[in-house]
Amino acid sequence: MRTKYQRVLLKLSGESLMGTQGYGIDTQRLNDYATQIKEIVATGVQVAIVIGGGNIFRGLTGASRGFDRVKGDQMGMLATVINSLALSSALTAIGQRARVFTAINMFPIGEHYSKWKAIEALDNGEVAIISGGTGNPFFTTDTGSALRAVEVEAQVMLKGTRVDGIYTADPEKDPTATKFSEITYDEVYNRGLKVMDLTATALCKENRMPIVVFDMDTVGNLEKVIAGEPIGTLVY
Fold it and tell me: Cβ(128)–Cβ(113) under 8 Å?
């Protein structure tokens, strides 16, 4: 397979890991993800991954229920570590080497993240799973993904979601919503589209990090994006 990218940062949604369960980790969904990731690594693509934690705990939701915001965000960071360990386990089980990094020192659960260690893992054919967000409260895993994509010198940030791209409105609520094949960072901001939070979008814009938003839950889509097929929405 001819690939458009040599090194990517894949952002996975914690909510997507729930599958149809409504909470926690759906093993079938997890294994589907692991298989697709292994397939693209086999083509020579280097893959770094950041996973959200919304299937277990979301800091903002906790804050709205009376949790201290900083503690809530720290709980969310721990949720991303749980998801990262699960994905690492699923990858290892099918023969794909993976290494878990944590933004906060959590040895021996994962290696303390550094750009150089993550790139070393990628160069060795391992999947680098980078957990714990940025390690700071008040930042989302979208911002963590944008930061890590820039740090590990990825060519693109792939945002795997439940929908097949960016629309003029939420397609699950508005049947008249139309999809963009591509859109600029500024247009995302000016239209107030809920693609990622503003900090993540600004970070990608400043560092000219393109983003492809696509449906990760359809098996085979990741391979299509890597091959450069026009699925999803390109943000540039």
Answer: no
pLDDT at 195: 86
Which residues make Cβ contacts (< 8 Å) with residue 100, sequence separation at least 6?
Answer: 81, 84, 85, 88, 109, 110, 111, 129, 131
Q: What is the DSSP string of 83-150?
A: HHHHHHHHHHHTT--EEEEESS--TTSSEEP-HHHHHHHHHTT-EEEEESTTSSTT--HHHHHHHHHH
Tell me the chain's radius of gyration from C-alpha atoms: 17
Within 138-204, strands assigned E span 156-161, 166-167, 179-180, 182-183
Q: Give the distance from CA 101 to its chain's centroid.
A: 14
Strand, coil or helix: what is 51?
strand
Q: How many CB atoms lie within 10 A of CB 168?
A: 13
What pLDDT digit, counting tens, does each position of 75-100 carry?
Answer: 999 999 999 999 999 999 999 999 99
Under DSSP, the state recorded for 50 is: E
Residue 158 to residue 234: CA distance in whole angstroms = 9
Q: Is the dihedral of CA 139, 140, 141, 142 positive or negative?
A: negative
Residue 236 vs residue 170, higher pLDDT: 236
Provide the sign of the torsion angle of the four alpha carbons 59, 129, 112, 150, taken in this order. negative
Percent of the chain at pLDDT > 70 equals: 99
